[in-house]
Design a protein that fits this description.
Chain A is mainly alpha-helical and 99 residues long. Chain A is built from three helices and no strands. Chain C has a single domain (2-81), classed as Helix Hairpins. Chain C has three helices and no strands. Chain C has helices spanning 2-20, 24-47, 54-81. Classes of the chains: A mainly alpha (99), B mainly alpha (312), C mainly alpha (97).
C-alpha cells in the first residue's frame, strides 16, 4: 500500500467518530436545536474526511474532485436544511431546552 | 473481510425492516412519511450491495427524493388528525391468522424465486451488447432490447398526469410560506448544478450506470426545488399549449421511432445496428425531458392554470 | 440468499400493513413497501447469475417510475377525498359539490 493510500485510509477512519458522535447527539440531546447542532457539525466534518480519504485512495484527480464537489454540495444543503428546520421549529413555538 | 460485509448486510436488512414497520405504524403520519423516505435511502444502499447501481441512482432520486416531496406536500394538505389510522390489534386471534399467513406467503415467494430459470438472460445480453449501440447493459435493455417496456412505462407516467389533471385545478397555494430566506437563495444558486448533474447522468447512461430515468428524475426534482424556492411555475395547462407537447414528447418520439422502424425493417422497434446509437441518444434526450416535466407536473397535484398570476 | 429472505419478510410486512392500517396514507406507504419487496426479490434473483442479468434491473427501473406515478395519482385523489381544509387548498373548483 502506498503512503498516499495509507493516509487516505487513516482519513476515512478519522471521519467515522464524527458520524458516531453526530448520531449520538441526535439520539441523546434534549431538543431540536441542539440535535441539529450536533448533527450538522459532526456529519459535515465526518463526510469531508471520508471524501478526502476516498479521493486519496482512488489515486485519480478527477475522482477526488468529484468527491470534494459532493462534499461542498452536501455542506450547502445541510446548512440550508438545518436552518430551515430550526426556523420552522421556532415558528411553530418549539422552545429551546432550558429556556 | 467476508464477515464485515455480512454484518453490514445484516444491519441494512434490520434497518430496512424497522423503517418499513415505522413507515406503516409509527405514531404520527409525519413520522411515517419521513421513515419511508429513509427507507428509500437504505433501499438505495441495498441496490449498491446487489450490484445494481442504475437502480440505486433511480431509487435515491425517485424513491426517496420525488416520492418524499410528493408525500410531504400531500401531508401538508391533509387536514385530519395526524395520529389517525394507527395499528391496533382488534383481537389477539388475528395473530393466529397472520403468523401462518406470513409463513406460507414467504415460503411460496421464496420457492417461486428459487425455481426461476437460473442462467437468466445475462449471457445473451452480454453477447449482443455490441450490436445495441450502447455499452451499458441496462440502457441496452431499456432502450433497445426491450424498448417496448419503456414505451409503455412513459405511457403510464403520461396517463398518470392526465388522470391527475382531470381531477381538477392544482391546489393553491402550491408551496407553504418559507420561514427562511436560505432555501430560495439556494434554489436559485443550485439550479445550474441540477442541469449539469442531469446532463451528466444522461451522457453517462450510454456506457455506465445512469440514463434518461435518473436524469429526468434529477431535473424534475430541480424544478420542484425551484418552485419551493418561490419561482413562479412555468408549466401551464392551456389547451394547444407547448407544454402538452413537451409532456408527451417522450411517448411521441418513441412511438414515431417504433413505427418508422416497423416501416423500414418490418419489425416494431428493430433498429438497424448502424442507426442504433444515434436513435437511442435521441430517444434518451426526449424521454429525459418528458420525464422531468412529468415528475414536475405530478407534484402540482392537479391541472395547472392557463396563466400563473404573479405572486406578491 | 439473505436478501431473498429479507424480500419475503418485507413482502409479508407490507401486505400486513396494507390490510391492517386504516388510514389511506399508511395503506399507500404499505403498498410502496410491498413494491420495494418485489423489486428486491427480482434483483436478488438477477444477482445469482454471472454475469449479472440486466433484464430484471431494467424492469425494476421501469417499475420504480410506474410506482411513483401510481403513488402520485393516489395522493391527488386522497387530497380531494380528505375532509376539512378549504376547497382551493385541495384543488376543488369553487362551488363544486
Amino acid at each position: 500500500m502506498t503512503v498516499v493510500g495509507v493516509i487516505g485510509a487513516a482519513l476515512v477512519v478519522a471521519g467515522v467518530p464524527f458520524f458516531l458522535f453526530g448520531t449520538l447527539g441526535l439520539l441523546r440531546l434534549p431538543d431540536t436545536y441542539s440535535r441539529l447542532h450536533a448533527l450538522a457539525k459532526g456529519d459535515n466534518v465526518g463526510l469531508g474526511l471520508v471524501c478526502l480519504g476516498l479521493g486519496l485512495q482512488s489515486g485519480s484527480v478527477l475522482v477526488t474532485l468529484k468527491l470534494l464537489m459532493i462534499w461542498v454540495l452536501m455542506l450547502i444543503a445541510s446548512a440550508t436544511g438545518a436552518g430551515l428546520i430550526a426556523r420552522t421549529a421556532l415558528a411553530r413555538g418549539v422552545k429551546p431546552h432550558g429556556l | 473481510m467476508d464477515w464485515l460485509a455480512h454484518t453490514f448486510d445484516g444491519l441494512l436488512g434490520l434497518a430496512l425492516l424497522w423503517l418499513a414497520w415505522q413507515a406503516m405504524h409509527a405514531p404520527g403520519l409525519f413520522r411515517s412519511v419521513v421513515s419511508y423516505m429513509v427507507f428509500g435511502l437504505v433501499m438505495a444502499l441495498i441496490w449498491v450491495r446487489l450490484e445494481a447501481p442504475d437502480i440505486a441512482l433511480a431509487e435515491a432520486a425517485i424513491g426517496a427524493g420525488a416520492t418524499g416531496a410528493l408525500l410531504l406536500s400531500a401531508l401538508a394538505r391533509l387536514k385530519d388528525g395526524s395520529d389517525a389510522g394507527r395499528l391496533h390489534w382488534r383481537h389477539p386471534a388475528e395473530l393466529v391468522f397472520w403468523l401462518p399467513f406470513a409463513a406460507v406467503t414467504a415460503l411460496v415467494l421464496g420457492l417461486t424465486a428459487w425455481q426461476l430459470p437460473a442462467p437468466g438472460l445475462g449471457v445473451d445480453v452480454a453477447r449482443t451488447l455490441g450490436q445495441s449501440g450502447v455499452d451499458n447493459p441496462v440502457t441496452a435493455v431499456l432502450l433497445n432490447f426491450r424498448s417496448f417496456d419503456t414505451l409503455l412505462e412513459i405511457g403510464v407516467l403520461l396517463v398518470g398526469v392526465v388522470a391527475i389533471w382531470s381531477l381538477g385545478p392544482a391546489p393553491s397555494p402550491i408551496v407553504p410560506k418559507m420561514p427562511s430566506p436560505a432555501l430560495p437563495a439556494l434554489g436559485r444558486a443550485l439550479f445550474p448544478v441540477f442541469v449539469l448533474a442531469a446532463t451528466y447522468l444522461l451522457w453517462r447512461g450510454s456506457h455506465a450506470p445512469g440514463g434518461a430515468f435518473q436524469a429526468g428524475a434529477v431535473m424534475g426534482a430541480g424544478g420542484i426545488l425551484m418552485v419551493l424556492a418561490g419561482a413562479r411555475p412555468w408549466l401551464t395547462g392551456e389547451e394547444q399549449g407547448p407544454w402538452r407537447w413537451l409532456l408527451s414528447l417522450g411517448l411521441v418520439a418513441m412511438l414515431a421511432v417504433a413505427v418508422a422502424m416497423a416501416a423500414l425493417a418490418g419489425t416494431f422497434f428493430a433498429y438497424p445496428p448502424a442507426l442504433a446509437a444515434p436513435l437511442i441518444l435521441a430517444l434518451e434526450i426526449s424521454a429525459a425531458l418528458s420525464i422531468a416535466l412529468l415528475m414536475f407536473a405530478v407534484y402540482l397535484c392537479g391541472r395547472p392554470p392557463d396563466h400563473w398570476e404573479a405572486e406578491d | 440468499m439473505f436478501y431473498a429472505i429479507l424480500a419475503c419478510a418485507l413482502f409479508v410486512l407490507g401486505l400486513h400493513g396494507l390490510f391492517a392500517s386504516t388510514h389511506m396514507l399508511r395503506k399507500l406507504l404499505s403498498l410502496n413497501v410491498l413494491t420495494s419487496a418485489v423489486f428486491l426479490l427480482l434483483v436478488t434473483v438477477a444477482d445469482l447469475t454471472d454475469p449479472v442479468d440486466p433484464v430484471p434491473h431494467a424492469i425494476v427501473l421501469t417499475g420504480l417510475v410506474v410506482t411513483v406515478s401510481t403513488t402520485a395519482v393516489a395522493l391527488a385523489l386522497l387530497i380531494r377525498l380528505s375532509p376539512g381544509g378549504s376547497d382551493t387548498a385541495r384543488g376543488r373548483p369553487e362551488g363544486d359539490q
